[in-house]
Prior knowledge:
Layout: E1 11-15, E2 42-54, E3 57-68, E4 74-83, E5 87-95, E6 98-101, E7 103-106, H1 107-119, E8 123-125, E9 127-129, E10 134-143, E11 148-158, E12 166-172, E13 180-188, E14 193-200, E15 211-216, E16 219-224, H2 228-231, E17 244-252, E18 258-263, E19 266-271, E20 281-288, H3 296-310, E21 317-323, E22 327-329, E23 335-336, H4 339-350, H5 361-376, E24 385-392, H6 403-413, E25 419-425, H7 431-440, E26 445-448, H8 454-465, E27 468-476, E28 482-483, E29 489-494, E30 499-505, E31 512-520, E32 525-533, H9 537-544, H10 551-569, H11 573-590, E33 597-605, E34 610-617, H12 628-636, E35 654-657, E36 661-666, E37 671-676, E38 684-690, E39 695-703, E40 716-725, E41 730-735, E42 738-743, E43 746-751, E44 756-760, E45 763-768, E46 772-776, E47 782-788, E48 800-807, E49 828-834, E50 843-848, E51 851-862, E52 871-878, H13 879-882, E53 894-895
Parallel strand pairs: 2-13, 8-34, 20-21, 20-24, 24-25, 25-26, 37-52
Antiparallel strand pairs: 1-4, 2-3, 3-11, 4-10, 5-6, 5-11, 7-33, 9-10, 12-17, 13-16, 14-17, 15-16, 18-19, 19-30, 21-22, 21-23, 27-29, 27-31, 28-30, 31-32, 33-34, 35-36, 35-48, 36-37, 38-39, 38-53, 39-40, 40-41, 41-42, 42-43, 44-45, 45-46, 46-47, 47-48, 49-50, 50-51, 51-52
Helix pairs in contact: 3-4, 3-8, 5-6, 6-7, 10-11
Bound molecules: 2-acetamido-2-deoxy-beta-D-glucopyranose (5 copies).
One 2-acetamido-2-deoxy-beta-D-glucopyranose binds next to strand 46.
Amino acid sequence: MGHLLWVCTLIFHVFYSVKGDFLIEGLRNIQKRNVAEPVNDIEVYSINIDCKVTSRFAHNVITSRAVNRADVSKEAIFKVDLPKTAFITNFSMIIDGITYSGVIKEKEAAKKQYATAVSKGQTAGLVKASGRKTEKFTVSVNIAAQSKVTFELVYEEMLKRNHGKYEMFIKIQPKTLVRNFKIEVQIHEPQGISFLDANATFITNDLLPAVHKTFSAEKGYVSFKPTLDQQRSCATCTTSLLDGDFTVTYDVNRESPANIQVVNGYFVHFFAPQKLASVPKNVIYVIDRSGSMEGRKMEQTKEALLEILKDTTEHDQFNFVLFDNNIDVWKPSLVKATPENLKEAKDFVRKITDGYATNINDPVLRAVELLDKARELNQIPERSVSLIVLLTDGEANIGETEPEKIQENVRKANKNGYTVYCLGFGYGVDYGFLEKMALENSGIARRIYEDSDATVQMQGFYTEIANPTLVDIKMQYPENAIANVTQNSFNHYFDGSEIVVAGRIIDNDLNFFSVDIQAEGADNSLKYSENVQIQEKDGVSKQQEYIFGDFTERLWAYLTIQQLLEKRISADPLEKEKLKQQALDLSLKFKFVTPLTSMVVTKPEEKEKEEETLVADKFVEAQDHNSPHQSLQNYAYPGGYASPPYQYAQMPNNWVDSDPHFVISVPSKNDALCFNIQEEPGVVLNLVEDLELGIAVNGEIIGKKETGNNVISKETYFGKLGIVNRKMKLRIEVTTETITIMMGKNKKEYTWEKKTSVKKEGFNLIVHKKNNVTLSFGEGATFVILLHNFAKNDSLHTDFLGFYTLDDHKFSAGVHGLLGQFFHGIDYEISNIHETKNPDKPDATMKVKNKLLTVTRGSQKDYKSDYRNGKKVPCWFVHSNAEGLIDGTHKDYIVPDIFYID
Ligand SMILES: *[C@@H]1O[C@H](CO)[C@@H](O)[C@H](O)[C@H]1NC(C)=O
Ligand SMILES: *[C@@H]1O[C@H](CO)[C@@H](O)[C@H](O)[C@H]1NC(C)=O
Ligand SMILES: *[C@@H]1O[C@H](CO)[C@@H](O)[C@H](O)[C@H]1NC(C)=O
Ligand SMILES: *[C@@H]1O[C@H](CO)[C@@H](O)[C@H](O)[C@H]1NC(C)=O
Ligand SMILES: *[C@@H]1O[C@H](CO)[C@@H](O)[C@H](O)[C@H]1NC(C)=O
């Protein structure tokens, strides 16, 4: 039901040859990637975007050609933004006359190959989430001096009808002037094209002549071929003004509501009846007003609800259920959308204020109850649709919080089959949960992106479902003559959309193909029949092959895979496996990169004469989002109210706490890295060492308390910290009991029981009773040590210390240690985020220090921001004692005692 948008960006960046791209191992100072300005040594001389659409099925080929005019090898990057709804079917590079093509494999098989390659440090993921509706395909390759390269990416998708039109947009951004730039769109629609438009966000009067558009009967053609001069941002500019979306919209004639096409043994059937009265709706809006909705989200939600009320027609009925930890129902029962009631409803909406926690289970059950009660009281018209629209921005954290349990409760309660739509607002939602709950109740889920246009997104979704004109639609095809039919019964038909069914014909002697459709309209039952003569093999295809011949078969496969994947979400485990296998078989047979397959590209590495394995995976909505950064936030916040988004520090802010968990904040990415160091009690680890300043911080590991019941715990903590300032002849020992300051020959001991302040030239220490020690060596070198202490009779917990840097800008470039080496920042790239057994903890590939590591999304706690409970901080977890992230191995950080400095 989404806006089916078709997007591609085409960017060529040129970097100076790979040198600038290497991070030199062992250097404490991380060199930033040297992203040079694009240079003209590599000339992109041709970009060709070729789109062929036959009966809604689009086959797109993007070809880009470049030449390296320099005397040394150069790296070129090819980037394309393609729609999330599309499946990549091929990618190839032609280098020196040799074609390197992608091979589509089962994901598991590709993973193995990938893992082997990772261990050799020769891989890269190719696809990342990019825009709301797009994913970005990126590949880079070294081109030898004076050589040429051709990239070719192929992807396919079915254009879905929405609001009365098919729309595709091609995002273009060549970033350079291109001698041969061409977009060509050929459309073949057997029903006849009713209108065809082409436009671009960057269009100017000078560019207009470069756009051509024609259509007659079944054929449509759009082209865009700007000359070099037309591409210039200004008459004398060498920069391109081609930067934005090129959009093609069209619709087909609807003389007959249904249309069937039979080609090459497969049929596709399109059904979109026009001008029917809409069926009355009974809608319960279940609206989250929990604490995290506070502010803009709440304002946007209210605004959207007011707009929705404005568009509500008098034959509709509605009610509101507002929830946080409490539930408020507006009216005891459904009310008619009379002008008076609408006015009252608007006043009610305007007065919604935010509350506290998030209880999802009970308000949804209440909505079901409200509809059930209205049914019992005969308030629900016989011809009407009953909908529950849930809007939430978080996960349940009060009442029933187990997602499976909520889904089960709703499924069981919803005996009358009300449709449940779930809108997930922002990044704090568990989208997978919402999607499953919607699909189990014949609805769909939609993500609302937290942005200035959130109101428009919510309203847009509503207008898609605002006008059901048919319910209980059943399509019947000739029995025994067909097989493998896609979904052929539907709860609703919404005005402006289209129902598509496809299948395989197994009776070779079939001369006529007929379909009978039964549905319930606003006033009566409706029947449609359609009958087509199956033409001779040769006769048909002449017309259709104007575009491409096997579209019916590929459209069928595309639709079948989409439906199998969707069914899988709400299937039981056994069924799930079966559906997965079917979808996988089809993906492999038709060569689609779906969530079950990967495309493996092996490219030559010019220098080492070694091969590099690249993998393109499909992104899945439950995981991916607007930008990689936003997607991370989604993993990070399972709790709505309980965990408002973490404010990453704007300054490097690193710490180690608990079972020693190290957290390295990365302000430039608004994210964090984390790792554990597993060592034996008694071991002392170096956390910070700056030989220039003469300052070091070391920590001694302690084990957990003996519980007396022989339970051996591997948990370890920091029980003692040593801080040395060699220049000041100062040593400070902090344990869970005492704070000892040794300066030259003087030694003074303090306890945690009393507030204390020690001030010396260039040194300041404050003991905050039973809570923390703040320690500063003047401006730019400030630490906090937190005391975690438990009751004396607590046999489970051991007292321990946490160490936090508050300000580290005074430290020299050579600062090292497990925390210190990150004081001056760290650069990394995340790609290939993919699902693991635990949906909240996806894995990804991290490129750091010119190595590729597998990392896992997780979170750690910041007790400095919330002393009692700790504040959850989402981070990328680096496994194996941070191997690959830290310089050397963790053993290199073991020092002989807590006052050790090199
Ligand atoms: C992929 O594209 C290349 C280059 O056009 C072609 O040689 C190859 O056969 C294609 N692969 C498939 C599976 O179609
Ligand atoms: C084309 O797009 C421009 C910019 O988005 C817009 O201002 C203009 O109205 C559009 N023209 C048509 C015919 O849609
Ligand atoms: C198509 O139908 C046949 C016969 O009913 C069945 O054996 C086969 O598994 C089906 N294939 C798919 C892809 O659904
Ligand atoms: C520990 O002692 C406190 C009082 O000092 C008491 O309230 C608490 O119940 C005791 N807890 C245990 C586990 O014995
Ligand atoms: C240290 O403890 C004091 C007193 O409890 C508190 O006010 C202060 O915020 C704490 N400082 C840090 C950095 O946690």
